[in-house]
C-alpha cells in the first residue's frame, strides 16, 4: 500500500515536471501561466542543478539539461525507496 502511494506520488511529480518543460516550449499565455504556477514545485530542484551543470550549445540552439537530470535523479530515488519498501522475495 505504501509502495503504491510512493510510486503514484513520484509519477504525479514527474508528470508535472513534463508539463513544466513542455509549457516552456510555447509562447501562448495559458502555457506561460501554467509554467509560472508549476515553477514553485520544480524550480527549487532545477535551480541548483542549473548552477552546477552548464547549458548545452548546438550552434545557435541551447538546451538546458537540468530537467533530464532531475528525471534521472527522481527515478533513482524512487527505485531506492521502492526497494526499501518492497524487499525482494
Number of helices: 3
Query: Roughly how many Å is the radius of gyration?
Result: 16 Å
* Secondary structural class: mainly alpha
Helix content: over 70%
Poorly predicted regions are none
How many β-strands, per DSSP? 2
Report the span from N to C terminus: 17 Å
Our estimate of the beta-strand percent is 5-15%
Following the backbone from N to C, one meets helices and strands in this order, namely HHEEH
Major beta sheet summary: 2 strands, antiparallel
Strand order within the widest beta sheet:
1-2
Mean pLDDT: 94
Name the shape in a single word: globular
Summary of the model, kept short:
Helices cover 74% and strands 7% of the residues.
Description of the structure:
The chain has 89 residues and is mostly helical. The protein has 3 helices and 2 strands. A two-stranded antiparallel sheet has the order 1-2. A hairpin with a 2-residue loop joins strand 1 and strand 2. Helix 1 runs antiparallel to helix 3 and helix 2 packs across helix 3. The model has no long low-confidence stretch (mean pLDDT 94).
Amino acid at each position: 500500500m505504501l509502495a503504491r502511494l510512493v510510486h503514484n506520488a513520484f509519477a504525479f511529480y514527474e508528470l508535472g515536471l513534463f508539463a513544466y518543460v513542455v509549457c516552456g516550449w510555447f509562447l501562448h499565455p495559458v502555457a506561460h501561466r501554467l509554467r509560472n504556477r508549476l515553477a514553485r514545485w520544480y524550480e527549487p530542484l532545477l535551480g541548483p542543478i542549473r548552477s552546477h551543470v552548464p547549458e548545452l550549445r548546438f550552434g545557435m540552439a541551447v538546451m538546458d539539461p537540468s530537467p533530464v537530470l532531475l528525471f534521472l535523479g527522481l527515478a533513482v530515488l524512487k527505485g531506492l525507496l521502492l526497494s526499501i519498501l518492497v524487499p525482494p522475495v
